[in-house]
Amino acid sequence: MSATQAKDERFMRRALELAQQAWGQTHPNPMVGAAIVEAGVVVAEGWHVIAGQDHAEVAAIKALGRKPAAGASIYVTLEPCSTSGRTGACTNALIEAGFARVVIGAKDPYPEHAGRGLEVLREAGIEVVEGVLAEECADLNLIFNHWITQKLPFIAGKMAITLDGKFAAASGHSKWVTGESARADVMRWRRYFPAIAVSANTVLKDNPSLSSRIGDEVWCPQRFVFDRTLKTFEADTIPQIYTDTYAPKTTVLCADAASDCLRTRAKDLNIMLWQLPEAKGHLDWQAFRKRCAEAKIYGIYVEVGPTLATQVIEDALADYLFVYQAPKFLSDTSVPGIGSHRNSQSMEEVFALRNLRHASFDGDRLIRGFLSK
Questions:
Q1: Beta strand 272-276 pairing with 250-255
Q2: What pLDDT sits at residue 340?
Q3: Does residue 195 have a pLDDT over 70?
């Protein structure tokens, strides 16, 4: 790697750090960071804080408060926009500011715009360097990239398992499969997604809060419960997500056949119900995606147990998986794990993850990637 490449990566990593200041706050927009560099020194920084506010490039230019020095560069994690929306085109702002060099991480994922911003800058005589830490920059915006290219919400499944693929002991005891550091990372990803979903079994077994708790901050996304028959409303003890401060952010997904009595109980608790058709013995996830799109919910983090994990993988219900694995064995055939009686005959029948990302947390590990068959 040349000295120039090393320098470009160093400043792009700073731009990535800046973009993450708005972790989970910019939907439906992407997270973007920008750093202005003069004579090898960062002199101004900016990031996109929330949809409708300044884009990262404009925020950095405003933070500088003057024209950049001759030969100045700006490092941006995402290709500058070349069209005007609620804010002006960032390419125009960069040209007017007088930058000599623009360094880009990821290209705009929208096919009709991809590369156009770079062309505009080059046509204006600006040196453009593209693809610096491109994979890291693209990974920052999993939800945005999926929405732009697929026009559908991004659904990610999350599981915590032992080395032999178990979620809990035979008694149902599951606290904890992974350690504190891995669980803290789960909180971080809960903050990233605008919605979180679990099965009725998880609600009945764990009575979860489904919030993100980072330090003293508690943040609650939209919460979904997959409860085909509304059995969570049969319990003597009402689950906390139906009665806590954030109860208005809870929606239960049920089938047409759910009983009127239980529907009434949900109504009495002011819990919203989404009635969905069924497919292959479970709620129709395509109908769920459509409802989420209509509600402008762009990403859902689904925390799965063995039954739901099997459905998610074998029926390709999710786009992406987060698999936290602890260096432990339960070694117990009575404990359910992932998989049904498929009677597979070849390793060609596997379900796989692609575009893998790895992380370690005090012995636990995370493998995440796009789900493919």
A1: parallel
A2: 82
A3: yes
